[in-house]
Amino acid sequence: MGPIGEDELFFLMQGLKWTVLLAIVGFIGGGIFGILIALLRTSKKKVTRTITAGYIGIFQGTPLLMQLFVVYYGVALLGVEVNAWIAVAIAFTLHASAFLGEIWRGSIEAVPKGQTEAANALGLHYGSRMKDVILPQALKISLPATIGFLVQLIKGTSLAALVGFIELTRVGQIISNQTYRPLLVFGIVGAIYFIICWPLSHVGSGLEKRMAKAAR
Amino acid sequence: MSYRFDFGAVLDRAPELLWASLGTLGLALAGMLLALVIGILGVVARTSKSEIARTPVIVFVEVVRNTPFLVQIFFIYFALPLMGIRLNPTVTAIMALGINGGAYAIEIIRGGVESVSRGQIEAGFALGLHKADVFRLIVLKPALRAIYPSLTSQFIMLTLTTSVCTSIAAYELTSAAQRIESDTFRSFEVYFMVTAIYLVISTMMMGLFALISRHYFNYPTR
């Protein structure tokens, strides 16, 4: 058995950096496409509603790990030379866009109908109605679920380890194999995830309780 | 560039994929049952009057819900042998799935039990119902109805999570896919087809859950 020293901790922090980056890229990329999905999903045109419903259904009905594998090897087939980092980032962006799109669809629909009618009565066109009236209110409603999904996404980035991407969990595997101290190493790795995710979960459920009380 | 898709190489292994699908279903079913047992026991402890019973459950739920399943399954996989317990990977995977799903089930079931209002229970006693009848008719069924949507979507999540069990080489669909991939080098085709199989499984489960719901919880609330 080897010791867990400074070198190992440094290596873990390197892995953590990639975990955080991957989660941020997935969340921002997924957020941008997610708004698009949510708007198309709530549009008046039936075609766009059906297509986006299918898109969401596929991502919610298949394992994240399979999505990673399919995108990872699918991108390679396109003939473009991309490194693992880009392929994995694309996969998490697509994954996040479907889940955030569905969460935000729900909150757009939860904004009272009267708001849309009032915006129409004021003569606002679609863009302004969404940007100035509906989306700000929808964003507030969606906050607890959005934060909840961010926690899911951070935990989900650990699966990138299984396609060989070096992030926190993969570093844990490597150190565990070198030092033969799996419990200590995965205990530390789990604790690092917990330190990041728990405060977020706490904020999310706190918001949820406050909003439930306000609604009563 | 022209890549020639070859799904035939994968289709040749269809029987293997079929058996592995049953493996996935079995893993999911066993995981759900264990999650349900942990969920019910956890709620009993979580809602008890003694703090010694409540605190470990709260810690358990928070730890499990805020760490990745992959780290949990590795931890359990290496921890069991150190405790002198030797299990095959598939049984270990069921334990990990049950523990993970159990933490979520505790929160869902607790919410459902708390949603039954005190007044209804008192009204039941006022009508002269026995304690068992009050529990069965006034507490249990409405609580089941309240938790059913969250619990079943959690079950579908659990089913999709079984794919992570390939990391400890449990018998299921994703590990079969990886085996076929290393034999045929048809990575994209294998994973594409297996993803489709997962979609079929989760869609069928959703349909089944909706059918059960329509059958058992089809009564007016007010």
List key phrases describing it:
heterodimer; A: 216 residues; mainly alpha; MetI-like fold; 8 helices; globular; B: 222 residues; AA_ABC_transptr_permease_3TM (chain B); ABC transporter permease (chain B); transmembrane helix (chain B); membrane (chain B); cell membrane (chain B)
Walk me through the topology:
The complex is a heterodimer of chains A (216) and B (222).
Chain A (H helix, E strand, L loop, with lengths): L5 H36 L4 H15 L3 H14 L6 H27 L2 H9 L4 H31 L11 H12 L2 H34 L1
Helix pairs in contact in A: 1-2, 1-4, 1-7, 2-4, 3-4, 4-6, 6-8, 7-8
Chain B lengths: L7 H4 L2 H33 L4 H15 L3 H14 L6 H27 L2 H9 L4 H31 L11 H12 L2 H30 L6
Helix pairs in contact in B: 2-3, 2-5, 2-7, 2-8, 3-5, 4-5, 5-7, 6-7, 7-9, 8-9
- As a percent range, the share of helical residues of chain B equals over 70%
Q: Helical residue percent of chain A?
A: over 70%
Q: Write down the CATH topology of chain A.
A: MetI-like fold
CATH level 4 superfamily of one domain in chain B: MetI-like
What is the class of chain A in the CATH system?
Answer: Mainly Alpha
Major sheet characteristics of chain B:
none
Number of strands of chain A: 0
For the largest beta-sheet of chain A, the strand count, sense and barrel status come to:
none
Biggest interchain interface, per-side counts: A-B, 37 and 38 residues
Spatial gap, N to C terminus of chain B? 64 Å
One letter per element, helices H and strands E, the order of chain A comes to HHHHHHHH
What integer is the average pLDDT of chain A? 93
Which strand-content bin applies to the residues of chain A? Answer: under 5%
Gross geometry of chain A: globular
Number of H/I helices of chain B: 9
Q: What is the fold-level CATH name, i.e. the topology of one domain in chain B? A: MetI-like fold
Our estimate of the beta-strand percent of chain B is under 5%
Task: Let me know the average pLDDT of chain B.
Answer: 92
